[in-house]
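User: Can you help me understand a structure? I only have the sequence.
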Amino acid sequence: MNFYSFAANLNSMGTILMILHQSCALTLALKYKLRTKRQVFKRFGRYLEDPGSEMRLYLPVNLKVLHKYAGTSEKKKKKQTGREHS
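Assistant: Let's start by predicting it. Here is the structure, written out as tokens:
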């Protein structure tokens, strides 16, 4: 999700995630010959967890941007600013 942090339409990412979640549910419905998404969610839960392998679908809680970049820690910034003034 952090890859899309500079996108202007980040809010529409939630819509895309919802569509993908529903699509996974429909795929499971076809595979297990269930008639509705509701039956799929009853059987596998909200995160579509597989009881055999205990694997589940990851859904982010929010789409808040974290801005974590490699090599930009606070200690490095302080050291760099200290060196420039010396």
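Now, to help you interpret it: The chain has one domain: 2-65. The chain has a mean pLDDT of 80. Let me know which part you'd like to focus on.
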